[in-house]
Amino acid sequence: MNAAAGNTLGTMMSSPLTIDVLVRRAASHGDTEIVSRTPDKTLVRTTWKKVAARATRLAHALVRAGVEPGDRIASLMWNHSEHVELYLGVPLAGAVLHTLNLRLHPDEIAYIAADAGDRMIIVDDVLLPLFEKIVAAGAKFERVFVVGAEPKGRERYEQLLESGEPTVLPTLHEDQALGTCYTSGTTGKPKGVVYTHRSTLLHSLVLALPDQLSLARRDTLMPVVPMFHVMAWGLPYGAAFVGCRLIMPGPFLDAANLVDLLVGERVTAAAGVPTLWIGIRDLVLALPEKPELQPGLRMIVGGSAAPLGLIRDFDTLGMPIVHAWGMTETSPVGLVSRVPPEADDLDYEAKLAIRAKQGLPPPLIEIDVRNEEGSVPHDDRTVGELVIRGPWVAGSYVGGHLPDRWTNDGFFRTEDVAKIDAMGIVQLTDRVTDLVKSGGEWISSQELENALMGHPAVKEAAVIGVQHEKWSERPIAIVVFREGQSATAEALRAYLAPSFAKFWLPDAFEIVESIPRTTTGKFLKTALRKTYKDYKL
Ligand code: AMP
Fold first, then answer.
1. Would residue 33 show up in a list of annotated catalytic residues for this protein?
2. Of all atoms in ligand 1, which is nearest to the CA of residue 324?
3. Between the chain's N and C termini, which has fewer beta carbons within 10 Å?
């Protein structure tokens, strides 16, 4: 026997998946740029190396200020490089970054800050008026640091940074909390989800996989999704992971400013909700000369379904849509819609239909669609509730609220209604709460909306159920037309007729200027249901 080999098996290093690894990696990306649009509309350029160094100083400064492992530090900020510093630096101090949704009502923000137990806060100077309202609503923070030139009597963030040193920091554990986001709360009170170091690093890895979002070093990525919405879908971490350029739009999320950045900064991948992309499509189509966009610019879209017509329009513009599904509870990437090789021989229209579905789960994520009888067959017809489990899916909410959202076998119940085809591709048909029940049969509001948004005159459409004496509920469609376009109710119904059972067709079409939205850009169906509560058919 070879004595040197000994009797024990060899080992692998058990390197923890903690943020310090990502900060060192970010530093290694050197002069690769992070570009931010400031409130005065100028572009400020910094580098990954500088941001990593400042994040390390921030971590040290926080520890020096008495921040303990697990303490929650809130941010009230737009998308810019200082916010990226917080993404890296707060967890580096062992603390938990809580990104507050600046679009919520101040009372609601105060509730969320209290529920999370936020100890300190870092605020953009332009958001101080909102911050003062949050304080007036009862929120309490031990210290308040202000980013920008006008701290209005509060402490300066830059001074906090100066008090830190590039030095040794607390030892981190991979299952420790790194960040927290609250669900957008289309129903009920917002619920807190806590991401760990491990879940975040693993999720970054999946963002880079070719069948997922294929983030790569040569990308220039523009996360339009706000940094308070599921940690900007984890994209700043994914960018630190692969070392791509990062373009941050600051407070300016209108189509003109976004197109200006797409062109000027040669963006190769942008991420946002469909509403924003609808605005960009309409602007680009209306421009007398097509803007000089990067060939193959990937328009990553999630948060709501990407209507098929939108995917088609962007194809014609040479800006392919990558459609993904996720939730605050899933970090968010849970499904990505890519045409699988077994569909290679299908024609363009059939492939479009696949891309408009929500897609397949990435590695390490398991999904199932279940009804009362168990897992539904993969027949593209039978619907059930989508359930999901994996290393970046929440295991519980802050405060242990709603434990029933988890099944006995460890899946999270999404409350999304879905069906699944023979290739395993998932298609969402609705939120459980948005389904319309007519004469005992379910009607999917989302399928009707997506179909309606394929009509050339329709910009946006939302379908809700209204009370009906005979059928208990009937669907009506709330429609916004594209500029200068219109169509009659008969024409819209005739457009839908070939694709749906007759009883699915909306009984009425209400034409409006705009559809109310949640703070993260989804149709606010609760508000629509309230408006049309006494609707007479
Ligand atoms: P949030 O936690 O605010 O991100 O909301 C998550 C919910 O948004 C999901 O449960 C879905 O209902 C919806 N959602 C997200 N992505 C998509 C998508 N690609 N298609 C349809 N609905 C989506």
1. no
2. 19
3. N
